[in-house]
Amino acid sequence: MDTSFLSPGPITWAQVVALAAFLFALGKDADWVIGKLRAGTKDAVSPLTIDMAAVKIQIAAQTKALHNFKVEVARTYVTGDVITRLERRIDDLVSSVRDEMKETRQTMLKAITGRSPS
User: Fold this and answer.
1) CA 5 to chain centre
2) Which spans are transmembrane here (predicted)?
């Protein structure tokens, strides 16, 4: 049986550096995997995470209660006159924005083309 491939031979510096790089990369990969595994369990049982989830639930409940309160106030206290005035203000705001956008468009076209739009 030929066992010449098992005989120790001279090791080159390139092989030593390659082995060191491989072991370093292997260690980094193992450290990354362990870190990922630990991070998930830490975050899952952290008291701060649990408190934060409870606060989010409370905020969602408060938001829903506030919405229900606003709807009840609107049903009870808002008259048709208030709604009409609000609609008029919204229409005025939209018209104002349209006018400003029209002026801006005309100014931009004049600046780009050098002549006023028709």
Assistant:
1) 57
2) 6-26
